[in-house]
């Protein structure tokens, strides 16, 4: 059944109730359509006529409905349905729902009323929002290329001189104020870690590791590691992960750069605020890491591991991560009197026994390296001869460990005499690596530490 509307006057309409052509006209007394062939109970007629039953006049709600005047419309609708069925993704915008009150039973978390101002957008030129962190009464927004602070339940009013004043407002998300500096979190929100007022994260797009604190943004990768992070971040793709965590036991920010689907491609290192530098690299590759109370944990293959055992009765094995032992090592450079060619004669250190020198290379020219043989630790180098104790590597002298350097250069050193016949290592500077010996894995099972306080070398000025 349809309806035909005909305009009769300027402000009124004629509404006709009709039956469309071809539709059956029912006989209410018999229940058989009028005009149906005999014996075909319930069949539709072949030719049915159009029948008009009643008509109504409907007037406008306006006084005058003349030509080009205000038309009839829907008026106020109690419920509005969005006429656009397609959804839109706005990676740079925030939206919030209604409240949830467990005391009164109100749950409007699925209510997003378009009649209220429930959205707040950041600059789309800075990329999508990757991370949100609530701090006190503000919300920190991490975009790919920018870090901002959004006010919560308040807004900021700025004067003509540029001064700002925070004022109370009936807003859930107030004004978004960006931090100074064009740095973001790229697409690595997993690198975020927090301790106190300090927030740490990485910006792969700018080859930077960042700290956000009360003094703003600081590029902590500049503390002696510019070249390192430039090279490492340059090898990381969009699918790679950069995991960050705060080690509350050692008070360090730990970051692990991990290649996707590559088991052995990773770099895990730590930053220490006390020295403002990157103090250590680690041999473990965590899938996740975090701190709870005074303990630091990491996850590998779905198994939870605790680090830094120190309590009596606990497992005090050191240099063991995820059941795999690795020697601890330190690499540094001897460079006294940098413009003088030297002959390094000895290597000395202060600390506990169990350290050996695996590398002592003197740089003489860009293509000439003078090297030393392996210097055994005090325990490894000890031997008896005719009942007398000798040491082939380090020996203890007044509480310090000292060893002579035995040359291990090849014929390419351009020296008349080279190799074991020569003592010492020649060079303007020397690269030295000292690490725990192979016996450390056994002795560390009892919890004994290997400490290293200072390393030095005795040298003489080389003849010209």
Distance between the termini: 114 Å
Strand order of the largest sheet: 8-9-10-11
The share of residues in extended strands comes to 35-45%
**What number is the mean pLDDT?**
79
Low confidence ranges: 26-31, 38-52, 442-446
Largest sheet: 4 strands, antiparallel
- Please indicate the count of domains: 4
Tally the helices: what do you get? 2
Radius of gyration: 40 Å
Fraction of helical residues: under 10%
Classify the secondary structure makeup into a structural class.
mainly beta
Q: Shape, please?
A: elongated
Question: Your description of this structure?
Answer:
The protein has 464 residues and is an all-beta fold. The chain has four domains: 1-80, no CATH class; 92-179, no CATH class; 184-308; 329-461, no CATH class. The chain is 3% helix and 43% strand. It has two helices and 37 strands. Strands 8-9-10-11 form a four-stranded antiparallel β-sheet, with no helix packed on it. It has a four-stranded antiparallel β-sheet with strand order 12-13-14-15. A four-stranded antiparallel β-sheet has the order 16-17-18-19, with no helix packed on it. The longest helix is centred in the middle third of the chain and has 9 residues, at 226-234. The chain starts with a strand and ends with a strand. 19% of the residues are buried. Residues 26-31, 38-52 and 442-446 have low confidence and may be disordered.
């Amino acid at each position: 059944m349809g309806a035909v509307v005909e305009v009769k006057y300027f402000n009124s309409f004629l509404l006709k109730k009709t039956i469309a052509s071809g539709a059956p006209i029912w006989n209410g007394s018999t229940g058989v359509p009028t005009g149906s062939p005999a014996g075909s109970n319930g069949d539709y007629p072949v030719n049915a006529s159009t029948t008009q039953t009643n008509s109504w006049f409907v007037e406008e709600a306006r006084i005058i409905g003349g030509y080009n005047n205000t038309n009839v419309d829907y008026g106020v609708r109690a419920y509005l349905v969005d006429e656009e069925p397609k959804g839109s993704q706005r990676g740079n915008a925030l939206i919030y729902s209604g409240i949830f009150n467990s005391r009164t039973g109100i749950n409007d978390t699925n209510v997003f009323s378009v009649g209220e101002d429930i959205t707040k957008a950041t600059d789309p030129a800075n990329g999508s929002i990757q991370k949100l962190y609530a701090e006190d009464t503000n919300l920190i927004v991490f975009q790919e290329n920018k870090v901002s602070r959004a006010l919560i339940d308040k807004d900021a009013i700025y004067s003509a001189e540029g001064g700002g004043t925070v004022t109370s407002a009936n807003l859930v998300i107030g004004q978004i104020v960006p931090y100074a500096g064009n740095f973001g979190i790229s697409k690595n929100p997993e690198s975020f870690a927090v301790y106190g007022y300090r927030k740490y994260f990485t910006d792969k797009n700018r080859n930077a590791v960042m700290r956000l604190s009360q003094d703003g943004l600081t590029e902590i990768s500049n503390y002696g590691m510019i070249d390192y992070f430039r090279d490492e971040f340059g090898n990381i793709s969009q699918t790679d992960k950069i995991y960050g965590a705060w080690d509350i036991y050692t008070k360090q920010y730990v970051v692990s750069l991990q290649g996707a689907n590559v088991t052995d491609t990773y770099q895990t290192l730590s930053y220490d605020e006390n020295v403002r530098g990157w103090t250590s690299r680690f041999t473990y590759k965590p899938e996740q890491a975090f701190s709870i109370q005074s303990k630091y944990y990491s996850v590998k293959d779905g198994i939870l591991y605790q680090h830094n055992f120190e309590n009596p009765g606990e497992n005090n094995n050191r240099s063991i991560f995820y059941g795999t032992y690795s020697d601890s090592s330190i690499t540094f450079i001897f460079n006294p009197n940098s413009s003088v060619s030297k002959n390094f004669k000895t290597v000395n250190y202060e600390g506990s026994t169990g350290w050996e020198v695996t590398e002592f290379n003197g740089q003489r020219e860009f293509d000439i390296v003078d090297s030393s043989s392996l210097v055994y630790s005090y325990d490894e180098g000890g031997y008896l001869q005719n009942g007398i104790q000798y040491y082939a590597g380090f020996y203890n002298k007044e509480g310090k460990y000292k060893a002579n350097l035995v040359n291990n250069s090849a014929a390419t050193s351009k020296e008349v005499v080279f190799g074991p016949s020569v003592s010492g290592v020649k060079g303007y500077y020397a690269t030295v690596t000292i690490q725990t010996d192979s016996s450390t894995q056994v002795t560390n099972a009892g919890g004994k530490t290997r400490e290293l306080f200072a390393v030095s070398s005795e040298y003489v000025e080389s003849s010209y």
